[in-house]
């Protein structure tokens, strides 16, 4: 008798009991005021945490609050939340330009530019001002989390908590385990992600983790196809939506992620694996040089009306 066909496992990632070690988290610090920092602030506040979000300037700090308000307003319009819920969530978020205002946070999630030197400096500072028990997490997409942990005096309490864009809408969180992190830290990160309504997976600290290691060679190849004139960007996007059931095609997704971020991710993948498919396509670099960064700059592969 042939063996019965077995499909993919149906269990949820990180089965119950495997990573149970909740440590009390009430206040979450978020560093970085971009798309991801704003999305993470919304997710954490919506889950009931007090959030202290830090931007480098008063304008960037305020933009976090404005971004969360816009997103919640849309949810109210769609009937997903009441106005009272929106106001409650917003009331849990305070914004600041001072890193020291994160001193009371039980968990800090960094989501600044994908530049290792910037992150190392930031984590050294966070380490010096946060409580000894605080977990310091990075939302990096590709950079070595172990390097970040090792500039702190608490490498056992440093891990990756990697959200996906748009953070309020995407259910996955990659919890990244560097060699130095303790099981308690990983368990707390898993538990935190679950408490935010996300489905965490635990992944070792290798460039790209799971999703970006698979996604970005594909996105880069789409740019190569375009450069070779194989098809228009519209047709390539339509092909991947219609032929593979993806929610959006590669060029729409590159514009969503940001072309500067995409180049940084590809460079980090290339630096680690030296696979030619990860070397950023020349057109991507040229577009970044031209300031065509995608949705956030109003122009990428497509044009976007600025709100
Ligand atoms: N904030 C909050 N919620 C949002 C949102 C946002 N910015 N954008 C969309 N949503 C919600 C909507 O409210 C809606 O929720 P509902 O069904 O409960 O009402 C749902 O998402 C669907 O939104 P829409 O109907 O407006 O639009 P779409 O159906 O086109 O979905 C999308 C938009 C969720 C962005 C979808 O196109 C998608 O899943 N795209 C793929 C995104 C993706 O692959 N992200 C990963 C990028 S890689 C990454 O982030 C890694 C990093 O390291 C670079």
Compile the SSE list and pairings.
Layout: E1 27-31, H1 35-46, E2 50-54, H2 58-77, H3 83-91, E3 93-96, E4 107-110, H4 116-129, E5 135-138, H5 145-150, E6 158-163, E7 172-177, H6 183-195, E8 199-204, H7 211-227, H8 233-244, H9 250-257, H10 259-273, H11 282-289
Parallel strand pairs: 1-2, 1-4, 2-3, 4-5, 5-6, 7-8
Antiparallel strand pairs: 6-7
Helix pairs in contact: 1-2, 7-9, 7-10, 10-11
3-hydroxybutanoyl-coenzyme A (3HC) binds at residues 71, 78, 80, 141, 164-166, 168-170, 211-212, 215, 247-248, 253, 257, 261.
Question: How would you describe the overall organization of this protein?
Answer:
The chain is built from 11 helices and 8 strands. Helix 7 (211-227) crosses helix 9 (250-257) and helix 10 (259-273) crosses helix 11. 44% of the residues lie in helices and 13% in strands. Strand 5 (135-138), helix 5 and strand 6 (158-163) form a beta-alpha-beta unit. It has 307 residues and is of the alpha/beta class. The chain folds into 2 domains: 27-204, NAD(P)-binding Rossmann-like Domain (Rossmann fold, 3-Layer(aba) Sandwich), CATH 3.40.50; 213-295, N-(1-d-carboxylethyl)-l-norvaline Dehydrogenase, domain 2. It has an 8-stranded mixed beta sheet, sandwiched between helices. The structure holds 3-hydroxybutanoyl-coenzyme A.
């Amino acid at each position: 008798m042939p063996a019965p066909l077995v499909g993919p496992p149906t269990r949820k990632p990180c089965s119950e009991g495997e990573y149970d070690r909740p440590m009390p988290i009430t206040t979450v610090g978020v560093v970085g005021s971009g798309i991801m920092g704003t999305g993470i602030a919304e997710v954490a506040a919506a889950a009931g945490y007090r959030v202290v979000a830090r931007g480098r300037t008063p304008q960037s700090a305020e933009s976090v609050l404005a971004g969360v308000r816009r997103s919640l307003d849309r949810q109210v319009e769609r009937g997903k939340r009441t106005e009272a819920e929106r106001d409650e969530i917003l009331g849990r978020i305070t914004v600041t330009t001072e890193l020291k205002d994160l001193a009371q946070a039980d968990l800090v999630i960094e989501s600044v530019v994908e530049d290792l030197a910037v992150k190392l400096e930031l984590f050294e500072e966070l380490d010096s001002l946060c409580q000894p028990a605080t977990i310091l997490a990075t939302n990096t997409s590709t950079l070595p989390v172990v390097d970040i942990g090792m500039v702190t005096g608490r490498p056992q309490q440093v891990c990756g908590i990697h959200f996906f864009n748009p953070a309020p809408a995407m259910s996955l969180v990659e919890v990244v385990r560097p060699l130095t992190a303790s099981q308690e830290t990983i368990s707390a990160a898993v538990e935190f992600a679950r408490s935010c309504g996300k489905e965490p997976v635990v992944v070792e600290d290798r460039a790209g983790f799971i999703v970006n290691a698979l996604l970005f060679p594909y996105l880069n190849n789409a740019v190569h196809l375009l450069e070779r004139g194989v098809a228009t960007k519209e047709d390539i996007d339509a092909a991947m939506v219609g032929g593979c059931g993806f929610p959006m095609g590669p060029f729409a997704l590159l514009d969503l992620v940001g072309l500067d971020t995409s180049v940084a991710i590809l460079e980090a993948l290339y630096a680690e694996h030296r696979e030619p498919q990860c070397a950023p396509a020349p057109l991507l670099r040229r577009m970044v040089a031209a300031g065509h960064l995608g949705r956030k700059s109003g122009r990428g592969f497509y044009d976007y009306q600025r709100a």
